[in-house]
Amino acid sequence: MDGRRCKGCGRELTAGDLRYVTKVDIYAAYDQMEIGPQDMEMDHSEEIRQLLYRIKDEDPKQMSDDVYVRFIFDLCKQCKEDFSKRLEDGELLTDEGEAS
Ligand SMILES: [Zn+2]
């Protein structure tokens, strides 16, 4: 046994159990990242200096998580169905799913 557990209910998932590998990727979207010829000609040194000053005391892990974070976990069949339904209904982003 490799000690896999359902992230939802905590139940141990044994070899015979149906197991759902669940991946959630959250990443920052930069919609305005097109670089044009004028960007290549501009001097960005002051912009870069200000950016470096702003981030000098930041935690690298937190900065990385601000851009991209991945969750991978196992779910049992029941929790997979509950999780899927909450995703469809948008309940993961509200407290409504906590009721009942
Ligand atoms: Zn479960």
Shape: elongated
Q: Any ligands, ions or cofactors bound here, and which?
A: zinc ion
How many strands, what sense, and barrel or not for the largest sheet? 2 strands, antiparallel
* Percent helix range: 25-40%
Beta fraction: 15-25%
According to DSSP, the number of beta strands is 2
Low-confidence stretches: none
- Read across the widest sheet, the strand sequence of neighbours is 1-2
Radius of gyration: 21 Å
Short note summarizing the structure:
With 100 residues, this protein is α+β, with helices and mostly antiparallel strands. Helices cover 37% and strands 16% of the residues.
Name the descriptors:
100 residues; 16% strand; two-stranded antiparallel ribbon; alpha+beta; binds zinc ion
List the helices and strands and how they pair.
Blueprint: E1 20-27, H1 37-41, H2 45-55, H3 60-67, E2 68-75, H4 77-89
Antiparallel strand pairs: 1-2
Bound molecules: zinc ion (ZN).
Describe the structure.
With 100 residues, the protein is of the alpha+beta class. The chain has a domain at 1-28 and 67-90. The chain has four helices and two strands, in the order βαααβα. The chain has helices at residues 37-41, 45-55, 60-67, 77-89, and strands at 20-27, 68-75. Strands 1-2 form a two-stranded antiparallel ribbon. The longest helix is centred in the C-terminal third of the chain and has 13 residues, at 77-89. The protein is elongated. The two termini are 34 Å apart. Bound molecules: zinc ion. The site of zinc ion has 8 residues, from helix 4. Zinc ion is lined by residues 6, 8-9, 11, 75-76, 78-79.
